[in-house]
Amino acid sequence: MDVSRRVVLAAALGGLLAGCSDVGKSASPTTPALAPAAARPAPSEPNATHPSGPPTAAGPTREEIVARYGRQVPTSWGLEVPGSLSRLPTTGKVAALTFDACGGKGGGEYDRALIDFLHERSVPATLFVNSRWVDANSATLRQLAADPLFEIANHGTGHLPLSVSGRAAYGIPGTRDAGEVYDEISGNRAKLTELLGRPPRFFRSGTAYCDDVAAKIVTDLGERFASFHVNADGGATFNPEQVRKAMRDVRPGSVVIGHMNHPRGGTAAGIRLAVPELLQQGYTFVRLSDAPKS
Fold first, then answer.
1. Cα–Cα distance, 241 to 263 (Å, whole number)
2. How confident is the model at residue 262 (pLDDT cuts 50, 70, 90)?
3. Distances in Å between the alpha carbon of 86 and those of 1, 42, 288, 292?
4. 29 Cβ neighbours under 8 A, 6+ residues apart
5. CA 155 from centroid of its chain's CA atoms
6. What is the pLDDT of residue 247?
7. 3-class DSSP state for residue 171?
8. Which of 237, 244, 293 is nearest to 106 (CA)?
9. SS3 label, residue 90
């Protein structure tokens, strides 16, 4: 991880993606943690929230994923793991804006001012939506999905860090095994496929933390794990000038993360300041699906 990115992440420590979760964030991002047994179902057992059947789009079943990955031990964990996407394969002045909509308590709103600005400047973006946000904003989601400027991506079912061993990030317990990884991906994948008529191509977990085995499961289910290079809004905690300053770390190929579910935050105003500066420097923006191929 380069120095500029570490600085931005440090500024948001304990608050990274804070607008996305109603869970406490006192733990270290790499501290393993498990929720109390009574609070969550036993590993690998489907429940009403996480369907056990195959995803709407063709792909392996839950049982096949558990058989394939149930005994694999992860060797890496964090914001960047093998196979994840944080930089586009280009040396040109091309970057990708991505915005998360996380749902849950305090995270189910819609930043219309941000989307309106992207429209004004014809700037495309990839929008990662969580199942809880989808439930609260289905009509808005359909409008966004019909807009060629945007593509809709998968931000998970329960907004959990993606792990096969129960790793936690910022105090949020992650999925505990391959079965729960499947549930976290496929529950929202099926919801989005039903609403949009096509499956999403990219997945980002709650907190954006993942291990390498979980990233393989994402791939097997037809998506790619998307991380980021520039944290534009510190989990929707930055004021407009902080957003503007963070966006100065954009480099050729940067994947930028921000949030579109906190209209009273500084994201929209900061992006309004930063994007014209980058356009003046010669940058263009793409959806992740339209990024240059390596």
1. 16
2. very high
3. 10, 33, 10, 13
4. 16, 168, 169, 170, 207, 209
5. 5
6. 98
7. coil
8. 237
9. coil
Residue 232 contacts residue 273 (beta carbons within 8 Å)? no
Residue 173 identity = P
pLDDT digits (tens, 9 = 90+) for 97-117: 999 999 988 899 999 999 999
Residue 177 has which token pair?
């095994």
Kind of pairing between the strands at 150-154 and 168-169? unpaired
Residues in Cβ contact with 267 at an 8 Å cutoff, skipping those fewer than 6 apart: 99, 111, 114, 232, 233, 236, 238, 243, 258, 259, 260
Q: Indicate the DSSP class of residue 277.
A: H
Rounded to an integer, what distance in angstroms lies between the CA atom of residue 25 and that of residue 255?
A: 24
Query: Which residues are CB-neighbours of 98 under 8 A, at least 6 positions away?
Result: 125, 126, 127, 128, 153, 204, 226, 228, 255, 256, 257, 258, 288
| CA 129 – CA 280 distance, rounded (Å) | 30
> What per-residue confidence (pLDDT) applies to 105?
86
Average pLDDT over the chain, rounded to an integer? 85
Is the per-residue pLDDT at 57 higher than 70?
A: no
Band of the pLDDT at 20, cuts 50, 70, 90?
low
What is the predicted pLDDT for the residue at 294? 61
Task: State the pLDDT confidence band at 291, using cuts at 50, 70 and 90.
Answer: confident
Tell me which of 1-15, 136-150, 204-218 is least confident: 1-15
CA distances to 85, 111, 210, 224, 228 from 294, rounded to whole Å, are 12, 33, 23, 15, 17
